[in-house]
Amino acid sequence: MIEEKLESMGIKLPNPPTPAGSYVPAIKTGNLLFISGQIPMEDGKVLFTGKVTDDNLETAQKSARMCAINLLAQMKRELGNLDKVTRIVKVSGFVNSDSEFYQHPKVINPASDLFFEVFGEKGKHARIALGAACLPLNSMTEIDAIVEFSN
């Protein structure tokens, strides 16, 4: 059902990105799935790079949405079926921001909005949005998530 919803939204999940370091993409413990930070990567290429400023806010929002799509791809890989998601518990968003940029929540909102759009009430979550001096591979954004699931 969730995958049909994604299809109706014009979203095709990519192959989940592989880690850029010495860690695993996700860990299951109990009924929680901890997903490592996802950057706006597709087919091995970072799609959105550089510092976020007031001038490129819309591009940064696209970057955050792509991170959320990669989080969905990791959920699918780990759970086999997105219908097993019972709650998006927490999202942490990091923004590769210029020192004079203060709109971090606005950058991460499209990721949060996507989870709500896809999962409805189950997509509402706790969140943090932070600025960072730099992010891996010079990506504009990086987002991780904690997800509750059923077996």
Automatic annotation (TrEMBL):
InterPro entries: Endoribo_LPSP/chorism_mut-like, RutC-like_sf
PANTHER family given in the database record: ENDORIBONUCLEASE L-PSP_CHORISMATE MUTASE-LIKE DOMAIN-CONTAINING PROTEIN (PTHR43760:SF1), ENDORIBONUCLEASE-RELATED (PTHR43760)
Signal peptide range in chain numbering: none
Domain Endoribonuclease L-PSP/chorismate mutase-like: 4-143
Domain of life: Archaea
Protein name: Endoribonuclease L-PSP/chorismate mutase-like domain-containing protein
Pfam entry (one): YjgF_endoribonc
Organism whose genome encodes this protein: Nitrosopumilus cobalaminigenes
